[in-house]
Design brief:
Blueprint lengths: L2 H45 L1 H17 L7 H10 L13 H14 L3 H15 L4 H11 L1 H19 L27 H22 L25 H5 L14 E4 L4 E5 L6 H4 L5 E7 L3 E3 L4 E6 L5 E6 L4 E5 L12 E3 L6 E2 L4 E5 L1 H6 L6 E5 L8 E3 L3 E3 L4 E5 L1
Antiparallel strand pairs: 1-14, 2-3, 2-13, 3-11, 4-10, 5-6, 5-9, 6-7, 7-11, 8-10, 12-14
Helix pairs in contact: 1-2, 2-7, 4-5, 4-6, 4-7, 4-8, 5-6, 6-7, 7-8
């Protein structure tokens, strides 16, 4: 869509297509499926309340995603209106705490600042039963944590079915749901106690299962913990003494000077408009505002990582420096469009060899900042990582001094 009319035209055509489609197709189909869901779950409950709890606890979040939970909600409302109690939705009500536990684990394990910023308010919301920010913002895009919450939901659902947790009103969610489970005729708190146990099961399992799994990156940035091990060169004393050998730093890597991988304007890493890079969390280095769409090797070494989208390359130089070059900010969203990698993982390259060709002007026209950080992810292995380039640079110019 042309930029000049995008703000108006995109929502206009989205509504023009989606509203009639929803009314004429999606609505009727979803309504029919919801009816089938209601019939199927009633049959499962008659067969076994425990199995009902497992299945509903595992699938509830998926049903909500497609609006199919409305096959059960009206049935529960009718139960409450006619009988004064219902068990139909109970295996689902404590699943929000599984999201709480999963988010807590993600906040502990992730190295992405943006994820932590999103997870904090999402965690607070989940405590009060509002899980949309958690699901759609974090756990579902990450996939694995979402699956872990479904597993936790199934287990707590089994306990819910086993203990016949019963609701006596349609109340709030999250921590506000418990008063709805007090029996108004007898004053019994048995369902409240069992529901509290379900909530603890959800919370603990959501946390534990997520802690046991690898947390995927959400914004395409590699985790700081995965930047690689310290290089372990074991050159002999005779080689170390040779006149043509670089100086050996105490940690085992060798001092060297990296060359500019791009033509453009060299800037300080702190000026990059991304807190992860600007703060040095990924490592020390510098950045380039590119003037042409060619990324080259800053030194001789081996390619260790190429993102499938082509927007980032990691390599390890022959002297032990581990380098990450990230083409632009948030360019992972382009899904590889405009990037062409010409090297493969495991390939050895020489200084100046082309690594990635990219459509600089085309990507910039889409609104992306193409500032390219070049960071030494094992900076801690060096006594100093200093930028030696200022202003305009071209490939082959001295860029970073490692010693």
């Amino acid at each position: 869509m042309p930029t000049d009319v995008k703000m108006f035209a995109v929502p206009f055509f989205t509504l023009l297509i989606s509203v009639p489609l929803s009314i004429l197709l999606i609505g009727p189909v979803a309504n029919t499926l919801a009816v089938w869901v209601g019939v199927a779950f009633q049959a499962i409950y008659k067969f076994s309340p425990i199995l009902y709890g497992v299945v509903l606890g595992a699938l509830w979040q998926v049903l909500v995603m497609f609006g199919l939970h409305w096959g059960l909600v009206p049935l529960a409302i009718m139960d409450l209106a006619q009988k004064g109690w219902s068990v139909l939705l109970n295996p689902s009500v404590a699943i929000c705490f599984a999201q709480t536990g999963a988010l807590a684990a993600i906040m502990i394990k992730t190295k992405e600042k943006k994820v932590k910023e999103l997870a904090t308010p999402a965690l607070v919301s989940s405590i009060f039963g509002v899980t949309e920010p958690a699901i759609y913002g974090i756990t579902l895009p990450m996939k694995t944590p979402f699956i872990m919450t479904c597993v936790a939901g199934a287990i707590q659902g089994a306990y819910c079915g086993l203990t016949n947790v019963t609701a006596y009103a349609m109340g709030g969610m999250g921590i506000f749901l418990f008063p709805s489970y007090i029996n108004p005729k007898t004053g019994s708190f048995s369902s409240v106690i069992n529901l509290a146990i379900c909530s603890v099961i959800s919370l603990v399992l959501g946390f534990a299962l997520t802690m046991m799994t690898k947390i995927p990156t959400l914004y395409g940035e590699p985790e700081a913990a995965a930047t690689g091990a310290v290089a372990t060169h074991t050159a002999t004393a005779a080689n170390n003494a040779a006149a043509n050998q670089p100086e050996i730093v105490e940690s085992g890597v060798k001092a060297e000077t990296l060359l500019a991988p791009l033509a453009g304007k060299a800037i300080k890493l702190s000026e990059v408009k991304d807190d992860v890079f600007a703060s040095g969390a990924m490592g020390k280095g510098a950045a380039v505002e590119p003037a042409e769409g060619v990324l080259r090797a800053p030194a001789a070494g081996t390619i260790q990582m190429i993102f499938p989208t082509g927007h980032a390359v990691g390599m390890k130089t022959d002297n032990g420096a581990e380098i990450l070059m990230h083409l632009g900010m948030d360019t992972v969203n382009l899904q590889g469009k405009g990037f062409e990698t010409v090297v493969e993982k495991g390939q050895h390259v020489k200084a100046g060899d082309v690594l990635v060709n990219f459509d600089l002007e085309g990507i910039k026209k889409q609104g992306y900042d193409m500032t390219t950080p070049v960071v030494v992810t094992n900076s801690k292995d060096y006594q100093a990582v200093e930028a030696v380039a200022e202003g305009e640079v071209k490939p082959g110019d001295k860029f970073l001094d490692l010693r």
